[in-house]
Amino acid sequence: MPASSPSPSPSGHLHRWSMLPVVLVAMFMAQFDLYVVNVALPVLQHELDASQASLELIVGGYAFTYAAGLITGGRLGDHYGHRNVFLIGMLLFGVASLLCGVAQTSAQLVAFRLIQGATAAILVPQVLALITRAFPPVERSRALSWFGVTMGVGAVAGQVLGGVLLNVDILGLGWRVIFVVNVPIAVVTVLLGLRILPHHVATGPASFDVLGAMGITASLTSILVPLVMGRSEHWAPWTWICLALSIPLLLVTVVRERRLEHHGGRPIIPLSLFTERAFNLGLGTSIALFASFFSVVFTLTLVMQNGLGISPLMAGLTFAPLGMAFAVASVLAKKQIVQHGPVVIAVGTAIVILGLTALIIVAYGVDVRLSAPMLIGPMILIGFGNGVAVPALIGVVLTTISPQHAGSAAGVLTTAQQFSSAIGIAAIGTVFFAVLGPGKRAGVHAYATALAGASMCSVVLALVGAVMTILLVRIPKRASIDG
């Protein structure tokens, strides 16, 4: 029988809010490790004699297993209990991080990063599910907004703190510190989790949908591998074959899942999730905004390091105002999310569009005189807008979902976010390099023009998100947000 939403009580209130930072540590670590290796790539190339292909797999391998495993990870929580899977996932993530930290060759690091991404996929859906199940409707949007804050701050912190950790060189560990730092955090989080995390009765059936898990993983793999590797492989025939195979694989999986659900089974993805209009529109908006945001971060990183020639540490520090703007906006908008969720998303999306427009104007206007400080203003607007929109968006998407589907819904949402980030980077990255043109000696002018072209594509994505947000606002309040 589905667990009901908890009712507010003074003691329960304190317990719920004390557990929140414990579970959010997992989200921060997963996002941090997704981006922290970017600043360490030159060091890894030198010390491990890593090839360009190995470097891309060190970055992309984590993203691949992370995104491909999120839906299965969410269902594991529904089946075996979110608390249990969270604690096991955190332990495994700590072990995988330690393995990354002791890797002796680039091949070992690639393998351990694949494992680390898979453990993050087990861990992250439980964060959203535990929040959804522990908090009553009146508090849930506010709690979920902190998930959005943590996601954004963790991503930017990976860029900023990664450079700091490498420069400080704690205990002479060099690049290894960016992985080893996770180990004590994981141990402390597990110890706190054993004491604080609530117990919920698992809602899964006697058997786990293994075929469904295999089907969705194969489908996602056939999409993700070409997206992660396509540009470096010059979009070789095998990348297009994989993308083509993903369509029948996905169709077969969906048909099987629909049939299983129709006969009373528990599929890996409950298709009944997609009967909620607020969930669908929120998911679509999330896809558009994440594709827009992370493609901008990707292109700005290229412009700073390759076009302007600044160091990875300085590039990371240049992103700090964006991260601070995201965090400040998230806190300021938090009180408005509960009562005006979809409207808050619309306001945030409008600010994002304004920031992207400013970025285009700067890139086109200053031309060969482009410098990192000139990018900070538009970046602050982009960070602030996403800080307003993203936390509210997560609350709107998940507050209509029943507790027994919390893990699955969290898996679908986080998978969509990771996929849209990969698709945005692949598609807009292609535009960026097409405008940049061939050759490794492109000047500031070429990079400024490429940035403007890529940012125009990001504006289009943000506009798509804005249209869906308008539709979301028109849904009656009770159906779209808790309150």
UniProtKB/TrEMBL annotation:
Residues 19-477 form the Major facilitator superfamily (MFS) profile domain. Its main location: membrane. InterPro entries: MFS, MFS_dom, MFS_trans_sf. Gene3D superfamilies: MFS general substrate transporter like domains, Multidrug resistance protein D. Pfam families: MFS_1. It comes from the Bacteria. One of its GO terms (cellular component) is plasma membrane. The chain crosses the membrane at residues 20-41, 53-73, 85-104, 110-131, 143-161, 173-194, 235-257, 278-304, 310-332, 344-366, 372-398, 419-438, 444-473. It is a multi-pass membrane protein. Keywords: Membrane, Transmembrane, Transmembrane helix. GO terms for molecular function: transmembrane transporter activity. It is found in: Cell membrane. This is Drug resistance transporter, EmrB/QacA subfamily. The lineage of its organism: Bacteria, Bacillati, Actinomycetota, Actinomycetes, Mycobacteriales.
